[in-house]
Design brief:
This is DUF4369 domain-containing protein. The chain is α+β, with helices and mostly antiparallel strands. It has two domains: 24-119, Immunoglobulin-like, CATH 2.60.40; 123-238, no CATH class. The protein has seven helices and ten strands. It has helices at residues 2-16, 121-152, 159-183, 189-197, 203-212, 215-218, 221-238, and strands spanning 17-18, 21-22, 27-34, 38-47, 50-60, 64-69, 75-82, 92-97, 100-107, 116-118. The strands form three sheets. A four-stranded mixed sheet has the order 6-3-9-10, covered by helices on one side. Strands 5-4-7-8 form a four-stranded antiparallel sheet. Strands 1-2 form a two-stranded antiparallel sheet. A hairpin with a 2-residue loop joins strand 1 and strand 2. Helix 4 (189-197) crosses helix 7 and helix 5 packs across helix 7 (221-238).
C-alpha cells in the first residue's frame, strides 16, 4: 500500500510539473508539431481589435510544446507558429479554450489544416457548427457560380430561380445557427458564434437567444460582447 501511495504522488508530480516547473494556471495546452525542428510558438488572445501574446516558447529539436495558462473564462485563443526563414500564411491555429487540458496535434506542412484539437467541449461544438455551416455555404457558392454562368451565357431566365434558392440557403444557415445556439445555451461558445456569425440576424431571434442563455455564459468575455450587441440592436429596434 505504501508503494502505491508513493507511486501516486510521483505521478501527480509528473502531471503538474515539467522541467521542474509547477503548474500555476488552470489550463494546460500541450501538443506536438510533426517535422518542426526549430521555430517559435506564441499563444495569443484577442484584446479589442488586436492580438496580444500570453506566452511564447522556442522550439529547438523537440517538436512537443506546453503552455501553462491562467484562463479567466472560456474564450478563443490562437496558437501562432513563427517558422523563422520560411514564410507561410498557414501559421495559426485558433481554438476555443476552457479550463483543464487541451491537446493540439498537427504538422509543419499543414499547421492549421491538419490540426486536431481535443480536450475542449466548446471547441468540439464549434467544429460541429462549422462543419454543418460549411455544407450550406458550399451549396450557396455553387449557386453563385451558376448565377455568373447564367449571366455569362445569356440565360437570364434562370436568375430568379437561382436567387430564390440562394436566399433559401442563407435562411437555412441562420435558422441552423439559431437552433444550434438554443440547443447549447449553457455553453460559452454560443455568444462567440452569435457575435461573429449571426450578429445581423433578425432581432426577435437575437432576443430569444439572449434571454435563454445560461447566466454563467453571459458573464464571460464573449457573453459581455453579446450583451452589448443585444443592447445596441434593441435601441435600434425601438427607434
Amino acid at each position: 500500500m505504501r508503494h502505491i501511495f508513493i507511486g501516486a504522488l510521483m505521478a501527480l508530480a509528473l502531471v503538474s510539473c515539467k522541467d521542474g516547473k509547477k503548474a500555476t494556471g488552470n489550463l494546460l495546452v500541450t501538443g506536438t508539431i510533426k517535422d518542426l525542428k526549430t521555430g517559435k510558438l506564441y499563444l495569443k488572445e484577442q484584446a479589442d481589435t488586436t492580438l496580444v501574446t500570453i506566452d511564447s516558447l522556442i522550439v529547438d529539436g523537440d517538436s512537443s510544446f506546453e503552455f501553462d495558462v491562467k484562463l479567466d473564462s472560456p474564450k478563443m485563443l490562437f496558437l501562432f507558429l513563427d517558422r523563422g526563414v520560411t514564410n507561410s500564411i498557414d501559421d495559426v491555429v485558433p481554438f476555443f479554450a476552457e479550463k483543464g487540458k487541451i491537446n493540439i496535434e498537427t504538422n509543419l506542412k499543414a499547421f492549421y489544416a491538419d490540426a486536431k484539437i481535443t480536450g475542449s467541449e466548446n471547441q468540439k461544438l464549434l467544429e460541429e457548427y462549422k462543419k454543418i455551416q460549411s455544407r450550406y455555404r458550399s451549396i450557396n457558392l455553387d449557386l453563385q457560380q451558376q448565377r455568373l454562368n447564367a449571366i455569362r451565357f445569356n440565360k437570364t431566365f434562370r436568375l430568379d430561380s437561382i436567387d430564390k434558392a440562394s436566399k433559401d440557403i442563407v435562411k437555412k444557415i441562420y435558422l441552423m445557427g439559431i437552433n444550434f445556439s438554443l440547443n447549447h445555451r449553457d455553453k460559452e461558445v454560443v455568444p462567440f458564434i452569435v457575435t461573429t456569425e449571426l450578429y445581423d440576424m433578425s432581432f426577435k431571434y437575437l432576443d430569444t437567444i439572449y434571454k435563454n442563455l445560461d447566466p454563467k455564459v453571459l458573464k464571460t468575455r464573449d457573453g459581455k460582447k453579446l450583451q452589448k450587441l443585444y443592447e445596441l440592436r434593441k435601441q435600434i429596434e425601438q427607434q
